Amino acid sequence: MKKTGIFYSFNSNKTAKTGEKIAEAFGKKSVDIVDAENVTEEQFAKYDNIIVGVATWFDGELPNYWDEFVPALEDMDLKGKKIAIYGMGDQKGYPENFNDGIGIFAEIVEACGADVVGYTSREGYTYESSRAERGDKFCGLCIDQENQARLSKKRIEDWAEQLKKEFS
């Protein structure tokens, strides 16, 4: 498998901890971890397999550190790249935009030609709407540490195993 880049904010506690757990599940020697708050186009472009961590802020927005990189990202050609997205959300506190960040980021990279991988089941979640929905699945891994922390470890491990196959 080609080297994988994992991009998340080192300052976003829950997103960072989840990113670290994903890296451990992959085997830290097979992934590079990059701080999303300082990412450059060159860093992002050098990987064919990319994992991105995005929280959903406020009423369904990307965190501002991703907003700063999005204009550069929108100008990139991502054809041939496989991108998997995980996100942090609160399905009880924000049921009307649960994990929207995943869907927003997926829309951006798909428009640039990337292949979004790592779809997961919507089963076991209770919310009103989500931009991460694609039919009966989410277009990434939805983690809800606020309400379902006990399920996170297995979800992360299962997703990492799924991605290892999809990234091959």
Give structural notes.
With 168 residues, the chain is an alpha/beta fold. The chain has one domain: Rossmann fold (3-Layer(aba) Sandwich), CATH 3.40.50. Helix content is 36%, strand content 21%. The protein is built from 5 helices and 9 strands, in the order βαβαβαβαβββββα. Helix 3 links the parallel strand 3 (49-55) and strand 4 (82-88). Helix 1 (13-26) packs across helix 5 (149-167). The longest helix has 19 residues, at 149-167. It is globular and about 40 Å long. The mean pLDDT is 95.
Offer a concise description of the structure.
The protein contains 5 helices and 9 strands, in the order βαβαβαβαβββββα. It has about 170 residues and is an alpha/beta fold.
- CATH topology name, in short, is Rossmann fold
Number of helices: 5
Assigned CATH class: Alpha Beta
Order of helices and strands: EHEHEHEHEEEEEH
Major beta sheet, specifics? 6 strands, parallel
Low-confidence stretches: none
Structural Rg: 14 Å
The geometry reads as: globular
Structural class: alpha/beta
- Helix amount: 25-40%
The tally of beta strands, per DSSP, is: 9
Give the overall average pLDDT.
95
Fourth-level CATH superfamily: Flavodoxin domain
Strand content: 15-25%
CATH architecture: 3-Layer(aba) Sandwich
Features:
Rossmann fold, three-stranded antiparallel beta sheet, 9 strands, 168 residues, alpha/beta, single chain, 36% helix
List the helices and strands and how they pair.
Elements: E1 4-8, H1 13-26, E2 31-35, H2 41-45, E3 49-55, H3 64-74, E4 82-88, H4 100-111, E5 115-117, E6 120-121, E7 133-134, E8 137-138, E9 141-143, H5 149-167
Parallel strand pairs: 1-2, 1-3, 3-4, 4-5, 4-9
Antiparallel strand pairs: 6-8, 7-8
